[in-house]
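Revision sheet: structure tokens.
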Amino acid sequence: MTTSPMYTFAVPVFKQMLLALKAVLAQASAHATAHSIEPDALLQARLYPDMFALAKQVQIAADFARGVSARLAGVEVPAQAGQEKSFADLDLLLDQTVSFLDGLSAAQFAGSESKEIILRPGTPKEKKLVGQTYLANYGLPQFFFHVTTAYDILRHNGVAIGKRDYMGVY
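Predicted:
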């Protein structure tokens, strides 16, 4: 049985990194508890004042995993309010995102490499991409940027995590 390369390079990759992020956030929560740090000190931490805080980085990573996969699979993008305020909230968001990804099949991605994807439709920033370009040159880089930034925020704030934690299980 063959599978769509678009599925292979999207869903399993998103899942691997989201599950690794989930584990890293659990370590961050434990670190906060062990060191009597208010969780918000980490959840609202950022690398630079004009960058998003940790919680928002995680929300955006989850948004990209859901949005990219849904558009390529031809299903509606599940809405999320983006109101997560705690490690438990982010954990639930990641669980819901992985559950959504688990509900997609490789067959839904068949032919998506040439499917037209329209970003920001009806706005001055509208951009049209074919599926392969959308995944390889937009979706994955955006996703990895936010996952990496979340990791970097935690590492910068003293959470004892490393590359193995970032990569997760593959």
